[in-house]
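Summary for the steering committee. The consortium agreed at its last meeting that each partner would contribute one worked example illustrating the joint modelling workflow. Our contribution is presented below. We chose a case with several input lines so that the handling of multiple components could be demonstrated. No manual editing was applied between input and output; the record is shown as generated.
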Amino acid sequence: MSTAANDAPRSRGKAPAGERVADWADGRLGIYSLAKANMRKIFPDHWSFMLGEVCLYSFIIIILTGVYLTLFFHPSMNEVTYHGSYVPMQGQLMSEAYKSTLDISFDVRGGLLIRQIHHWAAIIFLAGMFVHMMRVFFTGAFRKPREINWLFGFLLFVLGMFTGFTGYSLPDDLLSGTGVRFTQGAILSMPIVGTYISMFLFGGEFPGTDFVARFYSIHILLLPGIMLGLVVGHLILVFYHKHTQFAGPGKTNKNVVGMPLLPVYMAKAGGFFFLVFGVIAIVAGIASVNPIWAIGPYRPDQVSTGAQPDWYMGFAEGLVRAMPGWEINFWGHTLVLGVFVPLVIFGIFLAVLALYPFIESWVTGDKREHHILDRPRNAPTRTAFGVAWVTAYMIMLIGGGNDIVATHFHLSINAVTWFVRIGFFVGPVIAFVVTKRICLGLQRRDKDKVLHGRESGIIKRLPHGEFIEVHEPLSQEQLHTLTAHEQYKPAEIGPTVDENGVERKVKGTEKLRAKLSEAYYGEESQIPKPTVEEYKEITSGHGHH
Amino acid sequence: MKKLSARRRHPLAALVVLLLALACTGGLYAAFAPASKAQADETAQSLAIDEGKKLYAVGCASCHGTGGQGTTDGPSLVGVGAAAVDFQVGTGRMPAQQPGAQVPKKKVIYSQAEIDQLAAYIASLGAGPAIPSEEKYGPEGADIAKGGELFRTNCAQCHNFTGKGGALTHGKYAPSLEGVDPKHIYEAMQTGPQNMPSFPDTTLSEQNKKDIIAYLDAVNSDDTVDPGGLSLGGLGPVSEGLFGWIFGLGACIAVAVWVAARTAKAKKS
Amino acid sequence: MSSQDIPEENLPAEQGGTHVPKPADDKNPFADPGLPPHEHRIQDIDERAAKRSERTVALLFTVSMLATIGFIASFVAIPQDKSIYVFPIGHISAMNFALGLTLGVALFTIGAGAVHWARTLMSDEEVADERHPIEADPETRAKVHADFKQGAKESVIGRRKLIRNTMLGALTLVPLSGVVLLRDLGPLPGTKLRHTLWSKGKLLVNMNTNEPMRPSDIGVGSLTFAKPEGLEEHDHDFQNEIAKAALMIIRLEPDSIKDKRELEWSHEGIVAYSKICTHVGCPISLYEQQTHHALCPCHQSTFDLSDGARVIFGPAGHPLPQLRIGVNDEGYLEALSDFEEPVGPAFWERG
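What follows is the complete predicted structure of the assembly.
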């Protein structure tokens, strides 16, 4: 608060100006008690803890550039004739929305740069959220007390997808118009209410003259408003919970080790904002994104091949492309399974991830707070599940770009589609099994390192001629780090007969939990970590390698 | 499972896994790569014969029949016209060489004079579109914007917004139009080579074709300006997404690693 | 989600515990040795190194200032339509490139300066801060519960059921006004999705030339797009109408038409299909003239146009609707009726 204190004019014996301003504010806002708790708040340093910051900063960049764009964009679908400076569009009929986007790109100085920063930042924002979410997932940072923050983050990701969709639909170009048409077709497939929702959303038949204006208020007001609230909530919770940390010397579940917010973290985080902004500005200066002038204005009877949504919708696109064309007609009604089933799978697939923390805490029955992160290898079943989820996601991304994949790898588009259809079911299973094995292998290696030391690469010849490799014992820091993780025991159903010999009914959920717990923490799923006794037994006989 | 486990430490285990993986990859690729439909593996020799029919008898007759009536290996050429010959031979598609879902563009084997002779011979078999003269596909009097609209109505569905090409069924594809001679584009529209439908003058007028060619020259040539920067192949959101992930997010993460890394400590003395 | 019945011994021992870092002893070689001692950076002990760092930071900030000046200069000096060739990017807008780079550098160097400052000159001593449980201690918990009960009791909401129930009723009903207000977002569907502009006697007009067509204009293997006579690009409802009426016209050898109805509805092998995909409504027109397949560029539904536009691949659920066509007295192609079924994506009421 009290910056520039040194330069402030000091009038006889008075406190510096900055301090006086701060005092004044404290008297009205009570900022000192807030600052007391937070000014020297500790944040641990790790590159993966900054992924969330990438998202936060790109979100801020999107808001800044978005406000600028609203100054020039006309969210109107009135048909006008183009007479601007882009020659290949001269005299073409187009909506005002499309024309004003052309004007931003060609006639407003710097408009193209801001448009490209806005769009690139959106792509990076969503990609950053995806990676951030995976970091939180694989390190188990979603465990108590952070489940609600996990949900906030999840909602931000989903809302970000739809904000992106409504945003790139605004220029009313041929590519995004095709995407809007797809959305309308998907809405029509909803049983009973589909046609009504479609008519209400588009103000009549597709495309109508309303959707750009309606998407505009959703894109610039409704969704970002909710997101801003969620971001603030997300950050408050991060402050309140204090950041998690990896196990290591001096780091416990009851402390947090790192640098204080003021000054180190302030400088690093503040500097990182400029770094991210700089990277995105440079990307926007050298790489084109969504060149709507080459795409043309939307007309419902025109289309181009290679019609894909932005990457974050590619997963949904893949589901729709891979689905077989099932349609059921009965009693004068049509159930459009070919479109509706992918919509439902899309929802379930995302919901599984959102609910995972609750599922895992139900299986473990663990109600304690966790502030020490897991190494992914030490939670093999969770890690394997996450990798399986990502595999399915990635396969559907391939499906969403199956035509580009086909042309660029000289494959048949039909074969790629079949690969995706089968891969969606088989891929995650293989990924699960392989990941779990890799995790167990790494656990074994850690155990080996703890008990036998590090392979030093030094070969020694013993007096009787035998060659051995010298193993260096680990330092206590390393020993502690490698053995700090917790290991659960599988939950058992417990006695089914009480002390009076009366049989107790075992509930289905209880059996399910026992099974899941066995799958998570059974003998097949974790390597028991070395015990002190094992360690002593091995190290006591010295000279032994 | 036990046996397998016991042997995974074998010195050759890694090699076996590698070979298996390679075999799987190769097998998968072979399974997905489009099956061969077109055949004929005639390689053209350098020919000294300067008469179309002779050229034809040597280079083409084995698939298209001695009188151009067609065989099981190649369609009839009666009535396809000189424009079709000029396109097919002039872009190197004919004579066909490799088996595949579609006959690709390749190195041209015949000289333009030889192609003209071949074309004259085929044209004599039955009336068809003639080779267009330069004023038909030249830039004079063309309306680029109208060409763009026509391109989006008639062509973009297969060739992408600015003619970058795209996928068709079972391994067939619409090729990229970058660097294609305007004459050949004109001929392709007229004659409809391979699976491309034709757009005869009766439904897509000569002026329309001229406009389309002028549009392509404006948006898909070496001198085309991409105001925004790297066009990333002109393929739209797929390549943009990849670029954003790798270079956008990648750079941010690289910077994050630097920000979070520990500063070097002074050496202990 | 109850876990009351999980026996405590299944939970691993508390991580770290409340322990104070203890020195390594014989009892537990894995014990936490505590925070490692702080080591100095070069900048902490060598003032020259620290000075170098200071100069680097200052240099970075100066570069940022220069880049901002460069940004303003580019903005003023570079003409908007100037293009330059930059290897390996290609021909690009000089303005966008210059503005992007200068702005990027101006921002990046501020960040780089601040981070370098933090990394080399600010204290790098790691500090441990205590955590406190998120949940309240039992006394607070009991106090809050008691306060709440007291408040609820004083409000008499538990005793005066009538008030509670009517209040809930009122609060439930009031949002309905909001829902009702949404009614005028659009019209009811009615039968709008079932009809197009086509009707008996409407000529098929070529999209490219804007002229009606004769059968002789359309060769075998050609592809043409048509709209109904009277619909012009400038019309107010052009977009809505073309979204349903767009037509794809091809000509097949009559012998190669496998579907009987398709043959009946065609004219001398000329068939007219809806251009709008029955999956989600993309204009489908990737027509392969040798195989007679039409592929949708959006989701790869493939239709066999020689066999009643049957779906042979992809997610579409039913064939493309065909328009019955014939020739009028003047020899022009005309529609003989509207489509017999709704065009475009399927919907609940379609049947």
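Residues 15-24 of chain C have pLDDT under 50 and may be disordered. The longest helix of chain C spans residues 47-77.
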